[in-house]
Design goal:
- The protein is 42% helix and 14% strand.
- A five-stranded mixed sheet has the order 4-1-6-5-8, with helices on one face.
- The protein is α+β, with helices and mostly antiparallel strands.
- It folds into two domains: 224 residues, Hypothetical protein, domain 2 (Endonuclease III, domain 1, Orthogonal Bundle); 128 residues, Nucleoside Triphosphate Pyrophosphohydrolase, CATH 3.90.79.
- The radius of gyration is 25 Å and the shape is elongated.
- Helix 3 packs antiparallel against helix 9, helix 9 crosses helix 12 and helix 10 packs across helix 12.
Length: 373
Amino acid sequence: MQPIEIDKLRKEDWDKAADLLLSWFDRKKRKLPWREDPTPYHVWISEIMLQQTRVETVKFYYERFLNQLPDVEALSKAKEETLLKLWEGLGYYNRVRNMQKAAVQIMEEYEGRIPDSYAELLKLKGIGNYTAGAIASIAYGRREPAVDGNVLRVIMRFLADESDISKQSVKVSVETMLRQRMPERRSGDFNQALMELGAVVCIPNGEPLCMECPLAELCAARGQENVCRIPVKSAKKPRTIEKKTVFILFDDDRTAVRRRDEKGLLFGMYEFPNTQGHLNWEQALSYVREQGFSPLKITEIESSKHIFSHKEWHMKAYAIKIEQADDQEGYLFIHPQDAQEKYPIPSAFAVYAKYLTMRIGIDKLKGVNGGSQ
């Protein structure tokens, strides 16, 4: 397909669409905490959190984050474990690391003030076109587009354009077009209205709610009865599958965790000990002994699956009571309250986090030599 053409609709129709959209937004917009006081810092934090995360989930994290790190300076000085703990459960932990790097840039290069220029915002670590556009338009009123998946979907349906939205060139075309066609004033509201429309009306899965759409009469895809075929997006490559065995190792009152390597997925987070492959009962005990522990009782607990953007973890797990253990290289034994306050554990292990505070009944644990003990 050719790049999106700006003249697919007359300027009068674009202006009419903008008026209808803003009027709808004024009546129907959701009450969200970051909209109540849209400072540059608030917009930045919320937009990074909202990437690939549901709005209802973000509300809690947003409030907690601001309570502990209320401004750029506080973010720039935060300890890494504090950052990761505040981000625990949101995933994509490089996002919060990059936010801190950007905060340091802002303190050192911009005298602590988040820049208001789209071009300057793009110089900050972890800020791309969408986030720069959101901050510039919502916080500073600049006439800059903020094109995310919701906006792409709305625009492609509005124009009945079947270009492949997985291509970067198509997104750039939409940004260019909106920069020329968005209203001179209320640019931030216009961007938010497009996002809102895509989130609650022009939805991605299932039948869009066209009867509730303020743009229904102008929507080309609806006029062509083609709404469900647009947007067009090429299929993703299938995710790779990794099998893992997870170990809940505990003595009388503590459970073992370890810090992930400084490189790779989830680095710097704390996890339950695990190894590649699905181990049977005997192999699991052998692995634990090789780590220098003396297992006393074992039971297989629930399996779990966690999906990342490019891979899946299929996890088998054992709860194993061991003899009283001291911290050793690579392992840390922690009390339940420490896990809640100090040690960030990624959501990949969420199913097993309850075992930090829950002990399996003694009758359910099998002695390592077979039978109950």
